[in-house]
Automatic annotation (TrEMBL):
<comment type="function">
    <text>Substrate recognition and binding subunit of the essential mitochondrial processing protease (MPP), which cleaves the mitochondrial sequence off newly imported precursors proteins.</text>
</comment>
<dbReference type="Pfam" id="PF05193">
    <property type="entry name" value="Peptidase_M16_C"/>
</dbReference>
<dbReference type="InterPro" id="IPR050361">
    <property type="entry name" value="MPP/UQCRC_Complex"/>
</dbReference>
<dbReference type="Pfam" id="PF00675">
    <property type="entry name" value="Peptidase_M16"/>
</dbReference>
<dbReference type="InterPro" id="IPR007863">
    <property type="entry name" value="Peptidase_M16_C"/>
</dbReference>
<dbReference type="InterPro" id="IPR011765">
    <property type="entry name" value="Pept_M16_N"/>
</dbReference>
<comment type="similarity">
    <text>Belongs to the peptidase M16 family.</text>
</comment>
<dbReference type="InterPro" id="IPR011249">
    <property type="entry name" value="Metalloenz_LuxS/M16"/>
</dbReference>
<protein>
    <submittedName>
        <fullName>Mitochondrial (Complex III subunit 2) (Core protein II) (Ubiquinol-cytochrome-c reductase complex core protein 2)</fullName>
    </submittedName>
</protein>
<feature type="domain" description="Peptidase M16 C-terminal">
    <location>
        <begin position="251"/>
        <end position="432"/>
    </location>
</feature>
<feature type="domain" description="Peptidase M16 N-terminal">
    <location>
        <begin position="97"/>
        <end position="241"/>
    </location>
</feature>
Length: 512
């Protein structure tokens, strides 16, 4: 069955989006695309062969047992290699389209909607999660069963997912690239004409309990959840992407539909494709919207995230103590994100049982925290940026009895983040650039990077462009950025066996 799980995990590593200083990137040029009335019969002639109403029986694999020393192609086609190029368009209704064709056989498609849990109010808490759970169900064109069977026949039933986060809801499908004309209208149908049948909404509520159990069984995700609640107490980013059981009884099709009408305007959407031809993707997105009145863009209150800091702790089943110390960072696309990413790289991280290449065994947290105590299992720095705020800090896992020692060691390493030598900075730059360029080869990371940059800033800068920004960062900028973060109020989150975690004031004093 289709995956509709909510994404709440803490980001522990430097990703492509970790140091996007979009303020220093030239404005992205979008090709304007007008809606065109087309002959339906001619459009249908462009579709690849596919029978919606044929359920094929499984057949044996004809190539089973074939080894690599035997060719299965009599006349292998000559490769037509073309350098990947980022292309951007915008429909006249406001939706942005971005793509890059790496000539892979599998197309990765993502529809981003700027409608995460931060936009919820007291009247509809959990609406974003419920909207994601209703993804890939009945629409005006296809029933839930037909949607599942259609994706199943194309081999995309396991890759199709709808996930809600704090900033966005993401509809994603991985499919053979020739099946793009079928998948794009199916994805768009979820956001412009979902049916929201009462029995489907009621059945989706059962998935909330499953998601809650999955969250509670993942200590890393629980610490992230608690840290956000402490850092943004009772506002915007502090709201959980998961619906609470208390609000489940109030959810009806009208509640979810009302949330969609408030936030699912095309101007708040970005359609991203990797391993697709841009002209083909643009054409089918345009056709999917052409005959429908889009949800109008409403004037809404621009509520800024308010960083409060604070302390959140919860007993859990884990025998270890999971502890995170957080500080206010800068927003996504801010010029200071490059120094923040370098500080994250300087602190790095490591685990007691890992010593592979690239595992961070020479980083500060590895040498100053993990290697200094046999009771610390792992420790690493993280940074999460949003449209108007950010959260930077250190996350550690250790033996419960020694949680106090681990907390003090983490605070000491965090306090010294601004002290950096020229050689350390050069090493951090090389490592960060290497990670960015390697992740640019990952289709999933690339799609996420394109979608989030365009959704939150309206611009896009490639990894190659940001390596130049990283090279320009100086030791003084790193020190100033660290000083600014350390000047913010501390956020503390603990989960598991927390009986030995020091008091909030004690940890805060260690950072002074």
């Amino acid at each position: 069955m289709l995956s509709t799980r909510v994404s709440v995990a803490m980001r522990h590593r430097a990703s492509l989006v970790a140091c996007r200083a979009a303020a220093q990137v030239p404005a992205t040029t979008f090709n304007e695309v007008k809606f065109v009335k087309e002959d339906v019969e001619k459009v249908m002639m462009e579709l690849p062969d596919y029978n919606f109403y044929e359920f094929k029986e499984p057949v044996p694999n004809p190539y089973q047992g074939t080894t690599l020393d035997r060719s299965i192609l009599l006349d292998p086609p000559a490769p037509a290699l073309v350098a990947p190029k980022f292309e951007f368009s915008k429909l006249e209704n406001g939706i942005k389209i971005a793509s890059v064709d790496k000539q892979g056989l599998t197309a990765r498609l993502g529809l981003y909607v700027h409608a995460g849990s931060r936009f919820e109010t007291s009247a509809n808490l959990g609406a974003a999660h419920m909207a994601a759970l209703m993804g890939f169900r009945s629409t005006a064109h296809l029933s839930h069963l037909r949607t599942v069977k259609t994706l199943e026949q194309m081999g995309a039933d396991q890759s199709a997912s709808a996930k809600s986060g704090r900033e966005e809801i993401l509809y994603q499908v991985d499919v053979q690239r020739e099946m793009l004309p079928y998948v794009v209208p199916l994805m768009v149908g979820n956001v412009i004409f979902p049916r929201m049948l009462p029995w489907e909404v009621k059945s989706a509520q059962g998935d909330v309990k499953t998601d809650k159990e999955a969250l509670m069984s993942n200590p890393d995700s629980m610490v992230s959840e608690l840290l956000h609640k402490a850092a943004y107490c009772n506002n915007t980013l502090g709201r959980s992407p998961l619906m609470s059981e208390r609000s489940m009884g109030y959810f009806t099709p009208e509640t979810v539909r009302g949330y969609l009408l408030d936030h699912f305007a095309p101007e708040r959407m970005v359609f991203v494709g990797v391993n697709v031809q841009h002209a083909e993707l643009t054409k089918w997105v345009m056709r999917s919207f052409a005959d429908y009145n889009a949800i109008p863009m409403k004037k809404r209150e621009d509520t800024k995230a308010t960083y409060t800091g604070g302390d959140m702790r919860m007993e859990g089943k884990s025998p270890y103590c999971h502890l995170a110390l957080g500080l206010q960072s800068c927003a996504f696309g801010h010029a200071e994100l490059a120094p923040v990413a370098l500080i994250q790289e300087l602190l790095g991280g490591g685990a007691a049982a890992t010593s592979t290449i690239g595992s961070g065994v020479t980083s500060r947290l590895s040498t100053q925290v993990v290697k200094q105590s046999p009771f610390v299992e792992s420790c690493m720095a993280f940074n999460t940026s949003y449209a108007d705020s950010g959260l930077f800090g250190v996350y550690g896992v250790g033996q419960a009895e020694k949680a106090g020692d681990m907390a003090m060691a983490m605070a000491t390493a965090l306090k010294g983040a601004g002290s950096v030598t020229k050689d350390e900075l050069a090493k951090a730059k090389a490592m960060l650039k290497g990670k960015m360029l390697r992740q640019a080869d990952n289709d999933s990371e690339l799609m996420q990077d394109m979608g989030q940059q365009l959704l939150l800033t309206g611009k896009y800068g490639s990894a190659a462009e940001f390596t130049k920004i990283i090279d320009a960062v100086t030791e003084a900028e790193v020190a100033d950025c660290a000083k600014k973060m350390l000047g913010s109020k501390l956020s503390v989150a603990a989960f598991g066996d927390i009986h030995a975690v020091p008091a909030y004031a004690t940890i805060e004093g260690a950072l002074k």
